[in-house]
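Lab notes, practical 5.
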Amino acid sequence: MKKSAWLPAVIAPVVVAGAVAAPMIANAASTPIAGSDPSAADVIASVAQSSDAQYSGKVEQTSDLGLPELPSGSGGSSLQGDASDALSMLTTSHTARLYVDGADKQRVQVTTQLAEQDLVRNGSDVWTWDSKQREATHVTLPAKASTQQDGTATPADLARRAIDAITPSTTVSKPTSTSVAGHDAWSITLSPKSSDTLVGSVQLAVDQQTGLPLRVTVAAKGQSTPAFQVGFTSLDYGAPAARLFDFTPPSGADVHTKDLFGTARGAGDHRGHDGAGAGVVTTGSGWDTVAELPAGTVDTSSLGADADGLLDQLTRPVDGGRAVQTSLVSVYLTADGRVLAGAVPVSALVAAAK
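Output from the prediction step:
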């Protein structure tokens, strides 16, 4: 793991994919949503029908995690600049263009001031492109890789991650009718039964006609505005132009080839095709799950002065290390370099580390 990017790398998966919801998926009907009064199981089952959907649209992500808004690329060192750039994805709003042609062709374009970042998947080939840095990275996915493994974060990805984690620890509401980006949708709310989690609820809005997840909203306990939301603001069905999924690095670009998780990842932290981390240990269950990365994952002693100052700004000292608690998720760095994260208070992470 790149030392300066430890915080967003750990927070992002937990925020959007930490343990959510209830055990109906196994018994859900395998037919699209039918009638004007579907069950929650019908709505959840319809999501599986949308895996081959073809569409394009604009997606907006908003976050209110209680983290400080750091200026992009702030500070004099590249370490601090990298960390603040990554953190900005969690502390500010972002809009992206999304193009999807079935399960193995996606393109995400995030445009910022005077720059563009792209993620393009075409079958097993995944390219990322940063126009500001003029840097391209190529990754080849395993044969059984899913769209969730290439780093994208679309409404469909987030909803499926939530649904895949359904357990008896969650209350699922009866669907209600809503509208997202001009499309009629069914909305279901997943509420944790646990009193220990920071998550208040996860709300999924699913297209009534296609089963495509249109919006995912995660609310933190005691917070009036969503802690995290990603959803379509415009959406058109139909196959995008095939050229959108072809990528050739521009002349003069700095091109890198990496394994699925990047060459900087330690040998003990490779993951299998199912997405489970061989170096990740989990404790607890459901909404209270805590994920732990092994000793040596983060070496804060090697950080420069700027990056060390950023770490001090974002975290506070706790027993045995440093930690940050946002409205939705906590991260704990132990003195021996372990990283623990979960949608629970810092005190739960400290207890789990002992």
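Observations recorded by the TA: The chain has a mean pLDDT of 76. The longest strand covers residues 54-63.
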